[in-house]
Amino acid sequence: MNDQNNELKHVLKTRHVTMISIGGVIGAGLFVGSGTMITTAGPGALLSYGIAGLLIVLIMRMLGEMAVVNPDSGSFSTYAHQALGPWAGYTIGWLYWFNWLIIVAIEATLLGGMVHDWLPSIPIWAASFAFPILLTITNMFSVKAYGEFEYWLAFIKVSAIVIFLCLGAAIIFGFVPGVKTLDLATFTANGGFFPHGWMPVLLNVIFITFSLSGSEVAAIAAGESTNPKKNIIKAINAVVWRLLLFFVGSVAILVMVIPAGAKDLLKTPYASVFKLAGLPAAAQIMTVVIFISLLSVLNSGLYTSSRMIYSLAKKGDAPSFLARVNKRGIPYWALAASVFFAYVFTFSKFASPDKLFVFLADSSGGVTLIMYILIAFSHIRLRRKMEKENPEKLTVKMWLFPYLTYATILVVFAIFIAQVFIDSMRSQFYLTSLLTILVIGSYFLFNYKKEEPVVQQLEEVKVSE
């Protein structure tokens, strides 16, 4: 084992980093959830996706600016540590790790359910427990093997969306006979662009913001790329415009092709468009694509959670053995710990799906928004510090600083508070807030007055040089 030099390997290419990020975002939420958004808000759902997408673009730009200066596998946890103090890096690092393991458990059970539907002789629990261990093998073999595997999983999803976009464009421009599209007059006749008012549009922004989480994985994966500083901005820019194209473009096509009142068609919106175009096998094909999407998100979850807890261990915020890396550059103990707790949470899904697992899921539900807020505050502190000490390192800059950063903080904070007024999210708000307070309290209970590890001091010196 390579325990004396506990460093990750820099072998991922830009295409790997980009696809890892896209793979973490594009899941069943896009292929199925977009139909729900259109049902509740009508054509106004397009504006909902546009607002949420713009918010993610701003967050990713801030993260990209910091990551170019200091690419690190701990990403925003490391930046929060440097900008706001060790407590901030500790808090968001552990919350983010917990959040991804809950996502892994959810994806595993969904995959298990799909396998059971195809092969009823296989119990849901057996299939659910099989997938994490299978994907652990790809993560344990080598970083490059994981990157290549995730690249092709994400590539299949992206290909399906590109085909959908092309087909949708063909329908809209009249190249597909027998399929009518909605025009502006039709929107006006059916209650306008906002048939149910503005409130569903704004509520959808809240839900969509949660579904777009995962793009930040680009900054984590870049820490293991061949040229971190060069690849990080390429990957983040690629992720941003592709996500906007895939999400906003797809919803635009759905709004134009499927009437808002067609609830049956909107239950499986992508498959419905393919069927309308005369492709009867679309439902089966989209089921396979959704299966691959779930597999990809689970794969990204294991990778991301292992790198986050590895980074915490490097900073002294987690047991030191979790920072051990083998000869292939894999933080094997960090990965093993992540898989173990993913299994614990998956077990809770079967043992107590309506109580314990709902409690755990709600506790992690608002972590994404807390992460965004800390990224923005970290960006303000580090940007001002860098402008004073090493302005030449700011090769990538956030637009209209600091105004857009402050505006982003206000919007994200408003979305976080808005959960109190939404029945389905109220429990999530209180439990996530409580968990955050407990994690912060645990830092001061166990780590107060603890000296920062020498490695972190060296990293901060390196940034300021």
Task: Note down, in words, how this protein is organized.
Helices cover 74% and strands 0% of the residues. The protein is built from 21 helices and no strands. Helix 4 crosses helix 19, helix 6 (86-118) packs across helix 7 (124-141) and helix 8 (143-172) runs parallel beside helix 12.
**Largest sheet geometry:** none
Pairing-aware structural class of the strands and helices? Answer: mainly alpha
Give the number of helices.
21
Q: How many beta-strand segments?
A: 0
Instruction: Give the fraction of residues assigned to helices.
Output: over 70%
Q: How far do the termini sit from each other?
A: 33 Å
What is the gyration radius calculated from CA atoms?
Answer: 22 Å
Catalogue the unreliable spans. 451-459, 461-465
Characteristic terms for this protein:
465 residues, mainly alpha, 21 helices, disordered C terminus
Write the SSE topology.
Blueprint: H1 14-25, H2 28-31, H3 33-41, H4 45-69, H5 76-84, H6 86-118, H7 124-141, H8 143-172, H9 184-189, H10 199-211, H11 217-221, H12 228-257, H13 263-267, H14 269-276, H15 282-314, H16 332-351, H17 356-365, H18 367-389, H19 403-418, H20 423-446, H21 454-464
Can you summarize this structure?
By secondary structure, the protein is mainly alpha-helical. It is built from 21 helices and no strands. Helix 6 crosses helix 18.
